[in-house]
Amino acid sequence: MNGKKFTADESVDYNEPVCEDSTEELLKKYDRRRTQKNDDIPAMQAVVCVILAALLLLSNLFYPKLCTPVYERLLRLTSETEDVMPNPIDIIMEKL
After folding, report:
1. Proportion of the chain above pLDDT 70, given as a percent
2. Looking at the 3D structure of the chain, how many domains does it have?
3. Residue 84: partners with Cβ closer than 8 Å, 6 or more residues away
4. Is residue 14 part of a domain?
5. CB-count burial class (<10 Å; 0-12, 13-18, 19+) for 11
6. Quick check: is 73 in a domain?
7. Is 5 inside any structural domain?
8. In the chain, count of helices (H) and strands (E)?
9. pLDDT in tens, 49-91
10. Using alpha carbons only, how large is the chain's radius of gyration in Å?
């Protein structure tokens, strides 16, 4: 800082430009990152699901004999209540 001391009744201008590695700038950068989370992963999952649904629909139109077992397998996987991969924490808790 410039060595100026502030008293209790003075206000600090937080909008004044600060150097890049100052505490204020680091706090602003942290807050921006914390509040502006990226939605890249859910967006990518949604795109993949839409593409797979369109692919399944089109393949069912052109190759129904091939698509029927795939669709049945998909129905079995979605209706099973058992986990595909067991949770390691549950395994450890059972042994304790």
Report:
1. 71
2. 1
3. 77
4. no
5. exposed
6. yes
7. no
8. 4, 0
9. 899 899 988 988 998 898 888 888 888 888 877 766 777 888 8
10. 28
